[in-house]
Amino acid sequence: MDRIDNRKHDQLREITILRNYTKYAPGSVLIKMGDTIVLCTASYENKVPAFKKDTGEGWLTAEYAMLPSSTQKRNVRDISKLKLSGRSSEIQRLIGRALRSMVDLTKLGENTIIIDCDVLQADGGTRCASIIGAAVALCDCVGQMLKDGVILENPIKSMTAAVSVGKVSGELLLDLCYEEDSNADADINVVMNDNFEFIEIQGTSEKDTFTFDELNSLLNLAKKGLEEIFKIQKAVLSEGIVESENNLRDQQQGENI
Amino acid sequence: MDRIDNRKHDQLREITILRNYTKYAPGSVLIKMGDTIVLCTASYENKVPAFKKDTGEGWLTAEYAMLPSSTQKRNVRDISKLKLSGRSSEIQRLIGRALRSMVDLTKLGENTIIIDCDVLQADGGTRCASIIGAAVALCDCVGQMLKDGVILENPIKSMTAAVSVGKVSGELLLDLCYEEDSNADADINVVMNDNFEFIEIQGTSEKDTFTFDELNSLLNLAKKGLEEIFKIQKAVLSEGIVESENNLRDQQQGENI
Amino acid sequence: MDRIDNRKHDQLREITILRNYTKYAPGSVLIKMGDTIVLCTASYENKVPAFKKDTGEGWLTAEYAMLPSSTQKRNVRDISKLKLSGRSSEIQRLIGRALRSMVDLTKLGENTIIIDCDVLQADGGTRCASIIGAAVALCDCVGQMLKDGVILENPIKSMTAAVSVGKVSGELLLDLCYEEDSNADADINVVMNDNFEFIEIQGTSEKDTFTFDELNSLLNLAKKGLEEIFKIQKAVLSEGIVESENNLRDQQQGENI
Amino acid sequence: MDRIDNRKHDQLREITILRNYTKYAPGSVLIKMGDTIVLCTASYENKVPAFKKDTGEGWLTAEYAMLPSSTQKRNVRDISKLKLSGRSSEIQRLIGRALRSMVDLTKLGENTIIIDCDVLQADGGTRCASIIGAAVALCDCVGQMLKDGVILENPIKSMTAAVSVGKVSGELLLDLCYEEDSNADADINVVMNDNFEFIEIQGTSEKDTFTFDELNSLLNLAKKGLEEIFKIQKAVLSEGIVESENNLRDQQQGENI
Amino acid sequence: MDRIDNRKHDQLREITILRNYTKYAPGSVLIKMGDTIVLCTASYENKVPAFKKDTGEGWLTAEYAMLPSSTQKRNVRDISKLKLSGRSSEIQRLIGRALRSMVDLTKLGENTIIIDCDVLQADGGTRCASIIGAAVALCDCVGQMLKDGVILENPIKSMTAAVSVGKVSGELLLDLCYEEDSNADADINVVMNDNFEFIEIQGTSEKDTFTFDELNSLLNLAKKGLEEIFKIQKAVLSEGIVESENNLRDQQQGENI
Amino acid sequence: MDRIDNRKHDQLREITILRNYTKYAPGSVLIKMGDTIVLCTASYENKVPAFKKDTGEGWLTAEYAMLPSSTQKRNVRDISKLKLSGRSSEIQRLIGRALRSMVDLTKLGENTIIIDCDVLQADGGTRCASIIGAAVALCDCVGQMLKDGVILENPIKSMTAAVSVGKVSGELLLDLCYEEDSNADADINVVMNDNFEFIEIQGTSEKDTFTFDELNSLLNLAKKGLEEIFKIQKAVLSEGIVESENNLRDQQQGENI
C-alpha cells in the first residue's frame, strides 16, 4: 500500500521545531509535523491551584485549542458555544499528564507552569505534535525560571515525546496524517520518556479492533518513531537558549514585499 | 502485599448487576462493583445528530456524571460551575466509543441511543463499571427497539467490558479500588470485546512509568478479569428480559419499616 | 372515582425510607413513595456563605436535580443547556426553606449543611418525597456533627414533612401520582412541622380554581397524610444511627447472580 | 403596633397604574404600590414553543428581573453571573401561572404572549405588583391582538390580582412593605381571580410557623385587599384603550427644566 | 428635506432630566431625549477591582442594557442567551470611558463608582442619552460620597456630554432619532467635555463614506448641540441636591385613578 | 522626542504580509506590523444569518481573539471565563464593519464570509493590523468564490485599511506600538477606503483630551500612513493568487534542524 504522501509505513513526517517563536512567553515553540502546525508556549506564574497550596510543591497545567481556520471546514470557536469541546478537554488533560511526567513538582516551589498548545493548522497528530513541541517549550521555560531565580534546581526529570501509530486497511503505520487517521481501523497515541518507558498509551478502535500481537507491533513502531523524535528535540535544545535568529519576526522580513 | 480489602492481586471485587432497575428507560441497570455503584440507562430517540442526517445510519452517545454525594468529599455540581468537568468529559467520550464498538450503526436506522451513567457511589473504577453496566443496558434497550419495531435486525456485534489494572507499590493488581487507584504508580483501563480484542486502552502513569514487560503483564491480568466479567454479563442477560422481580422498588419494600 | 393505583382518596402511597444508603455523606437516605424514588443526602462543611460570615450562625442550603432517565421521556441534563431549569430552581428553594425551618441556625456554629435531592425515578410528588427523605438525612447529618464535635448541642427544633393534595376531576385526593398530577385542576403542596403548623403552602391551579372551602378540605386531607408520614419518619429514626444492614450494598448482594 | 408608614393593619399602600407607559409593547403599564415600582409589558409573537406546536393553542410566558439600582444595595446583573437568579426564576414562574389563568389558550391561536416585569424600585411586594400590573398590560395586549386581527374572540376569562399578607411580630398585616417583609414571621402571597377563587397561594414561614386559624385570618385579609385592587384595575381599564395623555413622555415634559 | 419630527437640521430633540428618580442609588436620573428614555444611576462601593488594589486610586465602571420591551420588536434578554450582546458590550465600554474622563481617580480613594444605564424606551441616541444622564447621576453620587465622608475632595474635573450627528440622504443632521439613524449613510457619536475638547469620537459609515470636509461640518454641528446640552445639565444640577419633589413616585400620584 | 524604536513621528513600523499562510481557509494571511503578528483568514459558507434570509443578499462577519501567550502577561482564555471579553467584542464589531464596507452585499448572493483575526503576538495596533491583513484575505476568499462559481461578479467595491495615530507626551505620532499606546494621552484608530474617505474613526482619550486642531493633524498623519499601507496591500495582491511559495510550511523547512 502506498501512503498518501509517499512515506514508508515506518516513516515520520518531516518535523521542524522553531524555538523563541513569539517573544513574551518564556518558552515559545512552533512545531510543524508535515502539514500539522502547533504553537506551543510555556509560561509560569508565582502561585498554585488551591489543592497545592501550602504543600511546597508546584503544578503544571495545559490548555489546547484549535484556531477556527485550522481545519478543513472552519470550526466554530468554543466561546461561541460557551462550552469547551469534549475533544479539546480530553486532549488538554492528556498533554497536562504527559508534561507533568517530565517535572519533579517538589523542585518547582509553589509555582505553576502553563502550557498552551494552539493549533494553527491541523493535518492529524495534533496532540502528539503538541506534546513534542511543548516539551521543548517547557525546557525553555524552566531555563528562564532558573535565570529569574524563581527555582534553584532544574526540575526536569526526563524528556517526553509522543507519536501516533495505527492500523489502516490492515497495514500498520507510523505517524498518521489526517487522511490516514480518518480511515484508520484503530489508532494508538503513545507517550514515552527518553528511557522508552510508557507515560501514556491511548489506543482506540471504533471501526475495527486490534489484537495483542498487533498492539505489540504497533508499540514497537511507535518506539522506532520516538527514537527519531527524541533526537530532533535534543538537537533543537542543544543549540542553546539564545535570542535565536530563527523566529518568525526576523526570518521572514523582506521576503514578501 | 495485602490489599486493603484482602483480595488477591488478580481478584475482582464482587459485581452485582440489577436489570430493569428503574422503570422508564428501556435499558436500566444498577451495577455495583465493590463499593462503586453506577446507574446505567439506555434510551433511544427517533433522530440523529446533524452529521448523521440522511446517511441511513444511527448513532450512540454517552453521558457520565457523579452525584454530589457520591464522593468522599462532596463534589460541586457541574451546573453550579457552568462547566462540564474535564474528567467527566473525558470519561463520557470513552464510554461512548466503547459502547459504539458493540453496535453496527448501519442496522440502527436513523435512531440515536443515549447511554447515561450516573455514579451513586464512587470507590474507584467508575468508568469501567459504567461500561460493564451500560453494555447490559444497551442490550435491553436494543431488545425494546426490536419489540417496538423501530429496528428489524439486532445490531449488536459483540459484548464489551472494561477493567482497570495498575502498578501499586511495584505490584501489579487487578480492579483497583479508590484507595489503590490514588496510590497507583500507573494504571491502565482496558476495554475489550468478548473475542478478547482491544477496543480501547488508556494507560497513564503520573507517578512512575511502566515498561513493555509490565504493560504485557498488566494486559494479561486485565484479560483474566474480563473473562470473568463477560461471564457475569452473559449470566445476567440470559435471565431474559422479564419484568424482573429484582428491581429496587419491589425488592426492598417492607424491609425497613 | 377509582384512583389509577386503586388507592382510597385519602390514602398515601407506600413509603419506604432506607437510611445510610450510600457511605460517604453523613446523612444518606433513599426514599420511595410509590414509584417515586429520591436519593436525599446531607453533608456539612466548616464554612458559611458570605452573608453569614462573622454572625456565629450557620446555614442550610439545598439542591435538587432529576437524573436524565428518571422521567418518562428522557430529560436533557441542565449542564447541556448551561442553565439550571426553572422548575429545579423553584423546587430546591422550597426544599431549602422547609429544611431550614427544622434547624436553629444559632446552634449550628459557622457551618453549612448541604442537602442534595437527586431523583432516580419520578412518578409525581418528588418535591414532597425530597423533603420527607431529606428531613431524615438531616437528622443523621446532625448526629454525625455532634459525634464529630463540630456542634455541641442538637439544633433540630422539630420534624418536617410534606405532602401533596389536589382536586382531580372534581374529587379531592391525597398524595397525587404523576398521572393524577398531570390531570389535576389544582394541587397544593403542604409542608408542616410535627406540631401541625404550616411551614409552607404552595397551591396552584392552572386548569381550574379552588374555593375557600375546598382549600380547607384539602388542607385537612394533607394533615391526615402528614400524621402518617411523621410516624414513618420517627419509626425510621428510632432504629438508631447504626451502621445499618439495610443499605443497598449489603442488602442486595447475591440476589441477582 | 404602628406600621412603619402609619397604615392600618388592613390597609393597602397607595396604588397607581399608568397604562401605555412606553410606546412599543402593545401592553405597557407602570405600577406603583407604595415605593415599589414595576414596569409590566405584554407583547405577542406569531409562534408558540415546541410543546404547543400544531395544537391550535397559544401560550403565555413571563419574565421578571430587577434593575441593578432597584434595591437598597445594588444587585449584580444576572448576565454578570451568567445565571438567572433562583429568586427571579421562582417569581417569573409564579407570574406566568397567574397570568395564564386569565386566558383561554384555545382562543389564542398559535400565538405567544410574553409578559415582562422589570422592577425599577423594590420596596416589598414586587411579585404581587407585577401580577396586578401585568394583568392590565395583558388586557391591553389582547385588545391590540383583536385590533390587529390576530385573534377573533376575546380570550380573557377573568381578572387576576395578587397581594401579600403576613404575620409580623404576632400581628396580621395586609400588603407588606420591605421593612415588614424582612421581619415577618410568615408571609403569604395570594393570587385570586375576581370571583375570589384561588389561583395560587404561596405561604412561607422561615422564622415562625402559622396555624390553620391564622391561615384563614390571613386569607380573609388578603381577600379584603384584593377586592380593592380589582376595583382599581377595573377603573384603570374602563378608561378605554386610548393613546392616553398620562404616559411618562408627555406628562413630565417641561416640569423639570 | 423635512425631518420626520419636523425638527430643523441642527435642532436637538426635547430633553428632560429628572434627578432623584428612584430612591436607593445615590445618583438616579431619568433622561428623556425625544422618545428615548434611559434610567441612569450611579452607586459606589468601598472596594476597587484587582488591578487598582493598593494604588490608592479609585475606579469607575459602567453597565448598559435595554429592557426587552424598549425596542420596536421585543428584544430577547441577554441572560436568556447567556451572552452579553456585542452591542451592549461596546456601548458600556464607551460610557465607562466617557464618564471616567470626568473624574480624577486619584481623588476617589479606593472606591468604585458603578454607572447603570438601563434603556426603558429606545428611539435612537441611547448611548448619548446615557452619557448625558449618567454625568448628572455621577455628580449626585459624588455629592453623596462627600456627604458620607467617603471622599474629602470633589473629584469631578469637568462635565461630559455626548450627541450624535449624521449624514442622512446627503444632509447633515444633529441628534438622530431611530428612523433617521437606520437610514443614515454615516453617523458619528461625539463625546466632549465642557471646554469643548474631544473625549471620544466614534464615526461609522456602513452605507456610505464621509470626507474630511463632511467630518468637520458634522463635528461643528455636534459642538452646537453639546453647547445646549451642557446648559441643560448645568441647569438641572444647579437646582441643588434636595430630596426633590419631582421624582416619579410623588409626581404622578393621583393623576391616573 | 525619540520613539522607543527610533522611528520618526510619521513613520510606520515595517509591515510584512504573507498570503496563503495556512492551507484550508480560502483567504489566509499572516500580517506582521513591527512586533504585532496577526493571522487573518477569510472563509465562506453557503448560508446567511436569519435577518438576511430570503433577501438575496449576503453577509460578512468577523471574530477577533488573542492567543493566551500573545501578551506580555499571559491572558486567560475567554472560554475559561465563559465570556467573550468586552474588548474583543468591541474590536470584532469594528473589524466586521470595516470589512463589510469593502463588499457589495447584493453581489454576494446568500453567502456569508467569516473573517477570523487571531493575534499571535500583540505589540499595539492589533485591530489595525487585523483590518489590513483581513482586507487582503477577503480579496483571496472572493477570488476563490469566483473560481468555485459561488458568485459570478466581483463584489469588492474598494480597498480598506486602518492605522492608529495618537498624542504621546504632547507629540503626535503615527502607528503606536504597545509602549506608546499605554502612555498615550489620546489615540485614534482611523479606517479609510483607498479614495481616502472615512469608513470609521474611533478616537478616545482617557488621560487627556484633544482639540479640533489636534484632531485634524492626527487625521492627516493617519492619511499619510494609509497611503503607504494601501501600496503595500496592492503590491501583495498584485502578485496574483498562486499557490505561493511563501507559506510557512515551505519557507521555513530545513532552516532549523
Question: How are the elements arranged and paired?
Answer:
6 copies of one chain form a homohexamer.
Chain A: E1 15-19, E2 27-33, E3 36-45, E4 59-66, H1 78-81, H2 86-100, E5 112-121, H3 126-147, E6 160-168, E7 171-174, H4 178-183, E8 184-193, E9 198-204, H5 212-238, H6 248-251
Parallel strand pairs in A: 4-5
Antiparallel strand pairs in A: 1-2, 2-3, 3-5, 6-7, 6-8, 8-9
Helix pairs in contact in A: 2-3, 3-5
Report on this structure.
6 copies of one chain form a homohexamer. Chain A is of the alpha+beta class and 257 residues long. Chain A has a single domain, classed as Ribosomal Protein S5, domain 2. Helix content of chain A is 30%, strand content 27%. Chain A has helices spanning 78-81, 86-100, 126-147, 178-183, 212-238, 248-251, and strands spanning 15-19, 27-33, 36-45, 59-66, 112-121, 160-168, 171-174, 184-193, 198-204. In chain A, strands 1-2-3-5-4 form a 5-stranded mixed β-sheet. Chain A has a 4-stranded antiparallel β-sheet with strand order 7-6-8-9. In chain A, strand 6 (160-168) and strand 7 (171-174) form a beta hairpin. The longest helix of chain A has 27 residues, at 212-238. The first copy, chain A, is globular, with a radius of gyration of 18 Å. The termini of chain A are far apart. At the D-E interface, strand 1, strand 3, helix 1, strand 5 and helix 5 of D face strand 1, strand 3, helix 1, strand 5 and helix 5 of E. Strand 9 (198-204) of chain A pairs antiparallel with strand 9 (198-204) of chain B.
